[in-house]
Amino acid sequence: MFKKVLVAEDLDSISIAVIQVLEEMKVPVIHHVKYCDDGLLKIKKALNDKEEYDLLITDLSFKADHRTVNLTSGEDLIEAINEVQPKLKKIVFSIEDKSYRIKSLFYDLGVQAYVSKGRNSINELRKAIEGTYKNDEKIVSSDLSFSFNDKSLIEIESYDISILKLLAQGYILENISSEFKASSITPNGTSSIEKRINKLKIYFKASNNVHLIAIAKDFGLV
Amino acid sequence: MKKMYAFFQNKAFLKYVLILLLLLLSGTLLCLSRPIKKDAFTSRKNNKTEIRKNLTKGDFFYDSYQLDSAYYYFNKAQHLCDRKINYIDYVYAITSIASLESLQGDFAGSEWTLTKTLPYLKIIKKPRFAANVYELYADNYYYTYDYINALFYQRKALHLKTSTYRKVGVLNSISLNYIKQKKYKLAQSILLLLVKIKPKYTKNDLFNKVQYSRILDNLGICYFEQGKAEALFYFQESFIINLKNNDSNALIYSYKHLSEYYQKLNPALAKSYALKAYELATELKSTKNRIQSLDLLIKSSEGNDLKKYSLQFIAIVDSANEDKLKSKNQFARIKYDAKQDKFENLQLKSQKAENDLQLERQKKRKIVSYIIIVCSAGLSLLLYFYLSLKSRKERNNEIIQSEIRISKKLHDELANDLYQTLDFAERKDLEHHENKEQFINNLDVLYSKTRKISRENSSINTDHFYESALREMISEFKSPDVNILLNGMDKISWNQIDKNKKITLYRILQELFLNMKKHSKASLVSIIFRVSENNLTVIYTDNGAGISSERLILKSGLQNVESRIKTINGTITFDNNSKKGFKLSFTFPL
Fold it and tell me: What is the pLDDT of residue A41?
């Protein structure tokens, strides 16, 4: 297990819970800071003393108070740490659920896990710590309906619109294929075009080609 | 009419008006700041000093006997004069010119020049200008042997209210005139009267003495012409005074008169006096006196001297004639130049008139500009305040609106559930495992609902995360029952769009989707983004319940959409025709 862990969290109740989890997991040294600036100082000091931390658990948002701080958010802290100790493993434990922000944590700041605060978050946190220790990457708590290749939105591409247009003009599959070949649009095999049409039918909730065209017309796509 | 009023209330239109006004303002200011052409003629004062300068220079050269230079400056001054305003200077300059001409022996020319002054003599209150003119007239006539006319002008000068000094001078001239007319008795009586007056005509003692010596000299001539022995006494008296004054000019006359007196009585003495006169005249470069003194020398000389002086006499007379011609030519040249000057002057005058016209125009333009400036400044201020007030009102309105919305949401979505949970906790025994589980579940639902409300109203990321944020917001409305189709979203360069417009677009779409979820029961929604001619058009279509009339639009919260799109100068179109589904498109400039 990890030997030395730093917890950056401004709310006592949460940090106590996190520390408890860590203690249960038999982590010998656990440090806790309430300000990002202090966190960075601790990391630097440990580096200086050659007793580096091997895990950081941090929140993203820190409440501003009377103390003026340089690093105002968990992102700032991670960025600053990446400059002095890039190999430190990082787990973000926060309420944030905006996917693009979480994605940027993984891609831009190189965190190992993201745990969203919620009902089962202590368990999720434990899993994330274990996963991180086993060098798993991109660990996301399961209560987030979030995936890295998000396809929940359907993009109608110009390729799809070309197919719809040709269908609306009465073309059959072979004609579309030859038309695509003529204007060098790929893919232009009949089977791939057919697959695409079937997909479109699902997207548009259409029962057949005619229905599909009717809906596309209604929606002003053709 | 109402439409018109609404048009004037249109913020965008008013903003354009404001910009236009500001442009107008800066334009007129620029116009005004352009330097106004200054002309020498614009300032009369300047002109006056210029005249005075020329006159002083002329006087200086006159006194130092540089006649052509003097002529040049007097002439220049004369041309500079506006005869209606600087008539005094004009008369002075002309008189000086006439005097110069007279000195050069051009008496006719001098007389002709003097006539120019006549119209102004009555206007000038100071009599000394008229006296100058009359005396000069008299001199001209005197030198041309027209003693009658000379006397006429001398009398005219005498009748003017001038100083005693001047009057004495005039009387002196008159007596000389009488002597020339051989009216010795008359001249004698005048001169004897003058001699009796104490020589204190003016404060300047030298002038008094000069004048007094002239009287004595004239009296001497008077007696001499009558062949009376008293002549010598007066000549000598005058001679002594002149000698004391060191008045070379007068001394020449004294020597001459003494020489004349001794011509018969003592030719040797006459010769020595004539020689002295000749030397002085030579020193003073007075050709006339040199000739006269030589004449006397010849008369009182004999033998070799006679021949020598005669030859000298001829030479001087010749060169004098030559000089006279030359100087006349010189004056003619200056006159010609002056004519040229006059021509130029005329040109300048016309230019001046043109300038005046231009100045007048400029003045008018200035006034118009000032009016425009004041008006446009006032209007801009008014508009500015109106616009800022309006936008503040709008902003306040928006804030109030969103406050109401949030409070309503809190009430509708949270308060109910919270009350149920509270009720649950009150009634059930939470020690019981199932109840506890239920309680925690309820709280979890409340927690996620709170987060959702917070997220809906949180700040919108407008940097490079905007597109993902927008996608995420849209994808939240996706469910197994609702398919959301997007088209053209990835073709928009979001980074180049104004921050406020991005926020507005986000909010509009959020509003539309919320509306869709609440009312329409749609299963398919499509959002099409199109960019054309710097405009972004977004077409929202769903296959839900739709909206049948405008009244419904107002009710169903789409009013917010409409007001939002207006803040970014966009237009919105509702498609009421489709019976099934709902279609809305809005366009705004990028």
Answer: 94
